[in-house]
Amino acid sequence: MTTLAGRGAVVTGGGQGIGKAVARALADAGAAVVVAARTEARVEAVAAELVAAGHRAWGARCDVSDPQSVAELARAATAWLGHVDVLINSAGVGHSAPVHRIALEDWNRVLAVNATGTFLCTRTFLPAMLERGWGRVVNVASIAGLGGGAYIAAYSASKHAVVGLTRCVAAEVAGTGVTANAVCPGYVDTEMTSQSLDRIVVKTGLSREEALAAALRAVGQRELIPPERVADVVRSLCDEQAGGTNGEAIVIDGGDSRRTFELINPEPLGRPRGWTHGILTPAGGRVLFVAGQTAADASGRVAAAELVPQWERALENVLAVVRAAGGSPEHIGRMTVYVTDRETYLASLKPLGDVHRKLMGRHYPAMALVEVRALVDPQALVEIEATAVLP
To answer: What angle do CA 112, 234, 274 make, to 5 degrees?
Structure first.
């Protein structure tokens, strides 16, 4: 995949965990990457790995809570990259303690890195993106930034600030070619999570396995989320095709809450040929009907094009609606595809499948194909409507 070829990216917190996985994902997508963090040896090691894999990458020491350090990072990144098109604010620290035992020093430290650091980097790199008319800012927040929990007041407050900042920046850059979004993962398989488990073990006397089970149970997860999964979502938000996604806080929780529905496949009907025979929505789920989407651009017009590029744009428009409602591609349970030429559609299954996998991954909803004489827009060859079940 080379969707970011020619783009320059800065990833803070890139020496380990999510930041390291994101740096690798962006480099694999074709971007030149500056990996930044407080520990110089770590970012140099990550950059060396990327260079050894044939990518362009540099390591830079940066304390995101220090305005001078951020300014120095910006100068170095601009010198290496020429221009910074993508900013990933992944630098962060964790903390846990009852509210009445949080030292002011710890409160200030967590807010300084997680919230102020995100602000300082965004404030520094955003103007040049606006001047060029293209940019992607993705902030790594947390599900703790959308809710609360015992003993995480400082961390949760800092991540709430990140989500709020993201939405404000998004409102300011709307329509400029620049976007700002956040990802909100649950417990990820990183060094930070390992340290959190160490604290739980010390404070409670639980075994490490019991501590992990308790932590996951508290947020409705079955297992730790691989950092690569978070990185894949971040990368998708940086694509050229992601220009319509702005101001979103995308939850990545890796647990039961992600699938808020039950698949119904009665044995007498045999194995379903689509995704499933039925979807049952329990309490807490929301059904989203996505009205038919064509390959229309922001002006509402459909440009003359062949079926495959029209299919890609129409599917992107469907996903834009789903994401705006808080969902992801895997929440789509059914799609109905209307085409003006069934034979052309069937003859194009391979390239259509390539587009589907690029946008939907390995998730294949149940699909129905309907041939029509014409669509409302005379240039439209395809229209896609969908039904999704969202958390």
So the answer is: 145
